Amino acid sequence: xxxxxxxxxxxxxxxxxxxxxxxxxxxxxxxxxxxxxxxxxxxxxxxxxxxxxxxxxxxxxxxxxxxxxxxxxxxxxxxxxxxxxxxxxxxxxxxxxxxxxxxxxxxxxxxxxxxxxxxxxxxxxxxxxxxxxxxxxxxxxxxxxxxxxxxxxxxxxxxxxxxxxxxxxxxxxxxxxxxxxxxxxxxxxxxxxxxxxxxxxxxxxxxxxxxxxxxxxxxxxxxxxxxxxxxxxxxxxxxxxxxxxxxxxxxxxxxxxxxxxx
Length: 262
Hints:
Blueprint: H1 2-23, E1 25-27, H2 38-41, E2 49-51, E3 72-74, E4 95-97, E5 118-120, E6 141-143, E7 164-166, E8 187-189, H3 202-205, E9 211-213, H4 221-225, H5 230-246
Parallel strand pairs: 1-2, 2-3, 3-4, 4-5, 5-6, 6-7, 7-8, 8-9
């Protein structure tokens, strides 16, 4: 019986790995894993997507650099405290989801992920972001909400493709002036921080900006309305709202949210 059971388990594992190789998708979500699976590392170039969401993995091994064709890495809701520096060798990576871990800092080598489009690391313990983040010229989404950030680096203004920044629930006191360089930026959310002013020129230069959310910050609505470019920003925001109504999108009971507490 033991022999048969062993053969069955071995066959099942072989079939699973064969399926992973044929699709390039390794799905191990909710698998009660405590360590990074060796069989995944051994697949090397075959891995395109790796989903390890909601396990109990505490360590990401340096050997992850062997997965050089991986485009999507999902390790949300684990126990990860640090990332290896050679993560930067994953030159094909486009999506990196690290939400709900225990990460306090990111390696400088993060900036080597030049194809990265989405970086989400909310609900961690970050106290700063590396300056090298400015090298992520293809980054479209940056989500660093629910951390311990006191600031965003000036280099973030070099992320020329950024369309959305989520930095809610931190302790950010000042937004970098370089945000004015982000001409593709559509949404900036920094609710529940300590922001008391917005960079001069933000509403003028960020001509794509349609959503600016600053609830529960020291900045007042009066300050916001006095900013140069406020009227143009309002027109863009209302135009977006009108399109949502025309598309029968359900709106909240507040209707058009001005994004700043009165």
